[in-house]
Fold these 3 entries.
Entry 1:
Amino acid sequence: MKKGKKYDAVAEVRKIREELSLKYWGHPDLLLKDLKAVRERYSQRLKDARNH
C-alpha cells in the first residue's frame, strides 16, 4: 500500500467482510433475521419514494 494514501477502500471492505463473517458464521438464523429486516426497511423506502 502506498504511504500517501489517506483512505484505502479495499482494506475497508476486507475489514467489514471480516467483521460480518465473525458475526454470522455459524448463526444462519441471525443472518436471515437481519436480511429480512433490511428487506422490509428498503421495501418501505421504495413504497414511500413511489408515492411522492
Note: The longest helix spans residues 28-51.
Entry 2:
Amino acid sequence: MVTAETILERTHAYAISTINENGFPKTLILQSIMSRFSFVTLYFYLDKNTDIVKDIQANPKATIACYAEFDAGYVTTLNLKGTFTLVELDDITNLSEDYKRYDSNLSYENPCILLFETLSFDIERLKKYRGT
C-alpha cells in the first residue's frame, strides 16, 4: 500500500510552494529534507536570504509536493499542506547532528532551519506519459 511515508522514502526532490508578496505561487525545488519525523514534521536547511524564506516570514502557509514511482506506467504524488516556522539555530539541539552535516556541506552565509508542520495531505496516482 502506498502511503505518505513510502512516497517520502522514495522521492528525490521536494517542491516547496509559498505565496509571494504579489499573491503568486513561488516554488523552490530541494533535493533533500534535513530531518523528518514521519510525514507530519519536516525540517529544511536554507539560506535566510532566499525569497522563499522571506515569503514564509510574511505568510507561513505552504505546500510541499513530491512523487515516487511504484507501478510501471504510473507516478504517485504527495501534497503536504501546512505551515512553516523559522527555527532559531539555538533551539535545534535534537537536530544538531543533521544540522552539522548540512551546514558543513552547504555552508550558507546566513543559514536557517525551517520547520514544516503538515495539517493535511493528499495522494494521487497518475498515468505516466510515455511519449513517442
Note: The mean pLDDT is 87.
Entry 3:
Amino acid sequence: MTDPKFRALTFGVTRVELRDGAPGVHYLRAKQALLDYPARMTDRLQHWAQVAPDRLFIARREKLASGGTGDWQTVTYAQAWASARSIAQSLINRGLSVERPVVILSENDLEHALLALGCLIAGVPFVPTSPAYSLISQDYDKLRHVLKTVTPGLVFAADASRYGKAITAAVGADIEVVLTRGTLDGRSTTSFAELLATPATTQVEAAMQATGPDTIVKFLFTSGSTKLPKAVINTQRMWCANQQQMLQSMPVLASEPLVLVDWLPWNHTFGGNHNFGMVVYNGGTLYIDDGKPTPALMAETLRNLREIAPSVYFNVPTGFEAIANAMKTDDVLRKTLLSRVKMFFYAGASLAQPVWDSLYESQEKEVGERIVMTTGLGMTESGPFAIFVTNPNVKAGDLGVPTPGMDIKLVDMGGKTEVRYRGPNITPGYWRDPKESAAHFDEEGFFCSGDAVRWIDETDVHQGLQFDGRIAEDFKLATGTFVSVGPLRAKIVTAGAPYIQDVVLTGINLKEVGAMVFPTQAVRHLSGLDARAPMADVLASAPVIAHFQQVIDELARSATGSAGRIARLCLLAEPPTLDRGEVTDKGSINQRAVLTHRAETVEALHADALHTILKPQ
C-alpha cells in the first residue's frame, strides 16, 4: 500500500532534547531555540498598519433586522489602528486600569475587536466573558462572579435588547455601560460611537510605550466546570512569546497570506489568543464566522466557507464532523474550502477516526491529496499553544513535541504521566487568588496541567507525546483497577459515530464500568420518527436501541480487561447544561460535574433501575 499524498506543509519543530531528572521525572524541550519577540502585541498591529495599511484586517457580515446576515463589513489595518487609538484615549480619559478593567459581555464582532485593541494600546486589561453567562444562564451567578473578581470600570455589550436583562441583574449602577446599539430603561449608557469619536492625543503614545512584557493584557476565565471560574492572568510576554512559538512551530502562518474564517469565541484562549493573536502577529485577515457547530448555526459556517477560502482552518471536532458530512455532497464547499487551505487544526476534544476518514476521502476526490489534520495540547494557562505535531501522519490522540522556548516536565503520578509547563508563555497565576495560583505550580516553577501523556513511540522520542486523559477524571473500580477515562471515552465516541456527542463514564469504587451517553441530533434521523418527537421517544425507538446495542457489543469484543469494558450503557435525553457546569459554551463535557448532578442516574444505572440499560450480549 502506498503512503497517502499530503499537501505540502512544513513542520517547524521535529527534534527534541530529553534528559532525566529525579526518579520518575524527565524533561523535554525543542532543540530549536525561541527567537526574539516583541515587548507588546501593539508593536505588531502598528507594524502592519504602517507597511500594509489597506490590507483587510477583519470582516464580519452585517446583521440584518430579520436576524440573518448580509454583506461583509470590513476594517483595514490602518482603520483598526486609528480606531484603536481613539478608543485608547477614551479609556485613558476614564482613568481605567488593571484595578478597573473593561469587561466585554458579547460575542465576536468588529466593535469587540476594536475595543480589545484599544485596551492593548491604553494598557487597560480587558475581560472577554462567555456570552452564555448573560444569554443562557438563568441565575447570572457566573457573571456576578466575574464582575466581583475583576471589579470593572466599564462594561461593554453589543446591544441592549439581548444583554439588557443580564446588565440590569448583575452590573452595578456605578459601572459605566457602553452599548453598540440601543439603550436601557432607567439607566444611563454610553454609545460605542462616542468612544470611536474621541480624538487621540499624545497621551495615547505615552500609554502604549508604558506597557511592556509584564503588562496584563486580559483576564480569561476558565470554564469553571467544577468550581467557579478562575481569572487567568494573560500578560504581553505570554501572548507575544506564544505567537512567536506558534510561528516557529507552524511556519505556514507567515509563508503566505494568512486568511482565517473563524467562529471560535474570543472569551476562550483558542479563539481569542491563538487565532485572533496569529492574525495580528502575522498581518493576516480574519473573517468572523457567526456560525457555530450546532444544528441551528452550522449552515452559516458552511455558507461562509463556500465563499471565503481560508489558508489554514481551525475548529473543534463537532465542527469538522459537520463539515465532513457536508463535503460529501456539497461541490462548492469542497472546491472553495480545499482550494488553498494548507492545514486543518482541531482542539478541544478528540476527533473520531470516521471523521478523519470522511475528510480525507473528500479531499482526495476533489484535489487528489490530503490536507494535514494537525493538533496539539495546551490550555488557557499556557497561552494556549504548548505542544504541536511533527509530521503529517497524525492519528487520533497524537499531540507532538514542545514548542520552542518552553520546557516540559514529565512526572510519574503512579501509573499516569503528568505534563507540566515552564516558559515565557505560562501565566503568572490567577488574578486576586494567590492560594489557587501557588497550588498549580510545583517546586521548580512548572505549571501542573493535570493532563496525562505517553510516548507515541518509546523508541523514538522525536515523534513526541500522545494524550492519555485527564488525571482528575481517572478513577478506580472496587477491584483497585484504574480506569483511564480519556482514551476510553474517545474509543466509545468513535465506535458510536456519528450518533454520540460525548460520554461520561461511571463506576467509581464499583465492580464495573458504565457509560452515560449524550447523543447527537443525528439519532433523530436514525429513529425514523417525526422531527418534533421528544428525545426520550427517539432514544427508546427500536433502530436507536439496535445501533447502541451493536456499539456496546463491539466495544466488549475489543476490551482487554475490566477497566476497558463497558458493562452497561444508558442514553441521556437531557443534554448537559451550562448552568450546572456540565458543559462549557465551547461544548467540552466535564465528567465530574455530570456525575455530581446526575448521581441518581448513575446509581440507577448500576442498580439496574433504569427503564433501558444496554449490556453486552
Note: The CA atoms of residues 382 and 426 lie 5 Å apart.
